[in-house]
């Protein structure tokens, strides 16, 4: 059992499910959930919850001292689509929150950090298919630039100061329990809500746009797995590629139609198309498999079935 864990950004798409999983594993009182806003979801209040601004290092330190926190999972960030609307806000939040947590670790006030990166670190000059762990990275979004910069700083803090920071480049994450937070892959969640509510979805990406995706349970398992593995297994201190499923809007729509035959989709690409076009269509995650035993368990068929069943029973 690790010491107390603090999750920053716990009300978000990933943070809320991560909080629930870690609480189920370690007990409600060992996991401190926090966010800049109060939770809508009462399940986050099953254990300690603090309103906390990730850009305020003194406030984070107060919570760390109060709860004797040993590990922080930093999930607060501004995502790709919203980041393009507010570039400086995205940069300030994404970078300052990371520095705050890395500096607390550097000063020995916490022992371990999880910080998520993203496939957005890649850009149009990156090999698009089976993108390698180490490759050309010229991101074109402010979000991608912040994640790539964050990766360099994580590696730097590890090499220079011995900070035990661990990271994953998440693909687009799909879940039914929480709504997505303003990313380019949000269509793959919206499509289920609209299919069940209206029988029709207008997709903001074109039908043949293939992107790497993952069901949330796989992402949560990977996150807990990388944090629990022995320090010696972590050979990548920037961020690990992580892969599960790659599909296009047309392919996911076809799979949804297996359950809802009347479902139809139209396509009206907007500014998010250019972001999607700059990202890989599939990812090579051999390093994560070899170093800490990662493997995914959800394919497209299983994910679609679980999404539809989950939303129907909500
Ligand atoms: N969801 C995905 O598909 C995906 C893919 C790749 C990477 N990621 C990364 O995973 C992390 C979590 O993503 P998510 O999808 O859960 O995001 P989200 O937008 O759903 O959640 C982010 C949470 O951070 C909170 N927050 C915002 N500003 C804050 C501040 N100043 N202090 C404290 N909390 C603040 C928000 O209120 C929100 O609850 C982010 O770093 C994101 O870049 C997500």
From TrEMBL:
Domain NAD-dependent epimerase/dehydratase positions: 5-235
Gene3D superfamilies: NAD(P)-binding Rossmann-like Domain
InterPro entries attached to this UniProt entry: Epimerase_deHydtase (IPR001509), NAD(P)-bd_dom_sf (IPR036291), NAD(P)_epim/dehydratase (IPR051225)
Similarity section: Belongs to the NAD(P)-dependent epimerase/dehydratase family.
Highest taxon listed in the record's lineage: Bacteria
Record's protein name: NAD-dependent epimerase/dehydratase family protein
Lineage start: Bacteria, Pseudomonadati, Bacteroidota, Flavobacteriia, Flavobacteriales
Cross-referenced PANTHER family: L-THREONINE 3-DEHYDROGENASE (PTHR42687), L-THREONINE 3-DEHYDROGENASE, MITOCHONDRIAL (PTHR42687:SF1)
């Amino acid at each position: 059992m690790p010491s107390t864990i603090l999750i920053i950004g716990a009300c978000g798409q990933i943070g809320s499910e991560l909080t629930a999983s870690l609480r189920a594993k370690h007990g409600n009182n060992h996991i401190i959930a926090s966010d800049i806003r109060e939770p809508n979801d009462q399940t986050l209040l099953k254990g300690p919850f603090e309103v906390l601004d990730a850009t305020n290092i003194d406030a984070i330190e107060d919570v760390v001292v109060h709860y004797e926190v040993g590990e922080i999972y930093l999930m607060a960030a501004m995502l790709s689509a919203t980041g393009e609307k507010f570039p400086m806000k995205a940069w300030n939040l994404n970078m300052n929150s990371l520095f705050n947590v890395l500096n607390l670790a550097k000063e020995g006030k916490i022992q371990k950090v999880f910080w998520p990166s993203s496939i957005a670190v890649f850009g149009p000059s990156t090999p698009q298919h089976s993108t390698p762990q180490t490759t050309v990275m010229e991101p074109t979004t402010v979000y991608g630039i912040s994640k790539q910069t964050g990766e360099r700083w994580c590696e730097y803090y590890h090499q220079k100061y011995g900070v035990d920071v661990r990271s994953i480049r998440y693909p687009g994450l799909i879940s039914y329990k929480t709504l997505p937070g303003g990313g380019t892959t949000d269509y793959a969640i919206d499509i289920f809500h609209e299919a069940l509510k209206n029988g029709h979805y207008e997709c903001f990406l074109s039908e043949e746009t293939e992107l790497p995706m993952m069901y949330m349970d796989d992402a949560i398992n990977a996150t807990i797995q990388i944090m629990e593995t022995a320090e010696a297994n972590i050979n990548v201190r920037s961020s690990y590629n992580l892969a599960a499923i790659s599909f296009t809007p047309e392919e996911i729509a076809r799979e949804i139609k297996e359950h809802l035959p009347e479902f139809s989709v139209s396509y009206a690409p907007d500014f998010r198309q250019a972001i999607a076009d700059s990202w890989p269509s599939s990812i090579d995650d051999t390093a994560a498999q070899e170093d800490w035993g990662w493997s995914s368990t959800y394919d497209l068929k299983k994910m679609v079935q679980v999404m539809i069943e989950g939303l129907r029973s909500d």
